[in-house]
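hey
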């Protein structure tokens, strides 16, 4: 074999190696896309479980603690103030709801909360914020929330 034959042979080997590397990279890309899709589904699932878990926690609290249930029912009456303990519980519950809605809003904005879920949560959020006591608390503290969430709420009132 002469040098020219070796050169052609090396070119064929190099071409085959390049094709092999190309197929390997293509296969890796396909696997990464599948993993990315599964990770996205996992994040959405975890977000959904978190949101539902928060709702369950508040529902359990309202079922177990009659004072908290009374505080929740009092949101329509901004002037109801039976005692300091009751007022603290009502304020805590209102803050909890506002923080929960901001969390859901942020999850929606990063794409971790699907549209169909956000539509229901956003309606719930706005219906609560329009209630007397929560509206009063919102007006006093809206600057403590993210600008985007504040703009969303203000645009819906």
């Amino acid at each position: 074999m002469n040098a020219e034959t070796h050169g052609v042979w090396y070119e064929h080997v190099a071409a085959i190696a390049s094709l092999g590397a190309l197929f390997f990279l293509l296969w890796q890309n396909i696997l990464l896309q599948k993993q990315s899709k599964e990770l996205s589904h996992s994040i959405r699932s975890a977000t959904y479980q978190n949101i539902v878990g928060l709702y369950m926690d508040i529902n359990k609290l309202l079922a177990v603690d009659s004072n908290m249930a009374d505080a929740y029912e009092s949101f329509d009456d901004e002037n109801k103030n039976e005692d300091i303990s009751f007022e603290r519980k009502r304020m805590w519950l209102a803050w909890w709801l506002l923080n929960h809605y901001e969390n859901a809003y942020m999850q929606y904005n990063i794409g971790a909360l699907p549209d169909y879920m956000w539509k229901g949560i956003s309606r719930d959020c706005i219906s609560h914020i329009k209630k007397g006591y929560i509206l009063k608390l919102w007006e006093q503290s809206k600057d403590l929330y993210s600008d985007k969430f504040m703009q969303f709420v203000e645009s819906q009132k």
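The chain has six helices and no strands. The CA atoms of residues 18 and 115 lie 44 Å apart.
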